[in-house]
Amino acid sequence: YFTLLYFTLLYFTLLYFTATAFAQEAPIWLSHKSVKYPDTLFISALGSGASEAQAKDDAVTQLALYFNSTITVNRAASSSITESDSIKKSRSVSGSLTIESETDLPLLSFSESFCTPSGEWHVCAYINKNDAVKRCTAELDGSIRKAKNALKACQNTDIPISIFTCLSKIKKNLIKLQKTCETLSVLNAETGKIYRTAIDTIENDCITGMRATKPRVSFGIHIENDADESIATILKEVLESEGFACGGNAALRISGAISISQSENDAGIFAQPNLSLKILNQQGEILYSYSRRYKKWGHRNFDSAVRKAYAEIDKDLRANFMNIFQ
Q1: HSE on the CB side for 154, CA within 13 Å?
Q2: CA distance linking residue 279 with residue 288, whole number of Å
Q3: HSE-up of 316 (CA within 13 Å, CB side)?
Q4: In the chain, what's the furthest Cα-to-Cα distance?
Q5: Continuous H helices in 156-298
Q6: I want to staple 299 with a disulfide (CB 3.0 to 4.6 A). Which of 36, 44, 244, 305 is the partner?
Q7: Residue 45's closest CA among 22, 78, 21, 71?
Q8: Could you give the count of Cα atoms lying within 13 Å of 7 in the half-sphere of its Cβ?
Q9: Cβ neighbours of residue 206 under 8 Å, at least 6 residues apart?
Q10: Spatial contact of 108 and 101, defined as CB atoms under 8 Å apart
Q11: Residue 1: predicted pLDDT
């Protein structure tokens, strides 16, 4: 009798608490988001899904629209936000999310999740504007200070190619600051405008310095096994399109070699080019190097395979050669 009574009481107790849980009222943010997360203090977005994880993913995707960013959300063991250009930063994120984003989502947080009796999950992702502004401005202050110091260091050298390379690297690094500034502008437009002006000033100084330096940098080009000077012609066009001079009496020399290995099978004849380039000063010191082992290109005859291989080299040099100065 007592055993039956015990299990009867246990059953009704569990039934009571289960019913109470499903009868839980929906949180205020689900129907009136701006009451819980006012726009003056937060940037927020609702998400829903068949599971808590899907609801969070959806909320983050909606929130990213405020920053005009393209993101993907993946399950991961660690909590971090990763920019698409491979710049990684540790972030405080609720749950186990790794977010790959064109624009960083600073100090991302989540409300408590809510599940309806029908099994649909809801959550609100939000960013505290004041905290995020402090994070962005601190990052920008430090980075802008470093950029200005690097700019002074560039101006203290009298070697033209070193000046150009230094300025080019600073200009490339400003891309990261520009993204952070875009995020800041969403959080606080006026503050973002101030930092954008500072970044633009540094960028303009770099561009001006690079333009002034280019006429002082000239290249001579000699490539071994480049019978018809195809590679030399491509390099000359790339350099001259960037404003550099090319000629015999040059301050710098591009020396290199092109080799093409041949193989064949039942599918045809294949050509695989290997390119090695070095940029040397007048003392013969190697300043920069560029090497590529390209994939095999096949055709019914070797000459045609070689032409296809050279087309790939042309494409690669026009797209990537100038990166050696960054």
Answers
A1: 27
A2: 5
A3: 17
A4: 109
A5: 160-187, 189-213, 230-241
A6: 305
A7: 71
A8: 3
A9: 151, 167, 168, 170, 171, 174
A10: no
A11: 53
Residue 25 buriedness (CB in 10 A; 0-12 / 13-18 / 19+): exposed
Following CA atoms 135, 141, 144, 150 in sequence, which dihedral angle do they give, to the nearest 10 degrees?
A: -120
Strand-pairing partners, residue 46, are 124
How many whole angstroms separate alpha carbon 7 and alpha carbon 310? 82
- pLDDT (average), residues 208-234: 90
Token output for 89? 């930063």
Q: What are phi and psi of 95, to 5 degrees?
A: 85, -170
DSSP symbol at 127: E
pTM of the model: 0.67
Mean pLDDT of 98-125: 78
Tokens matching residue 325: 């100065």
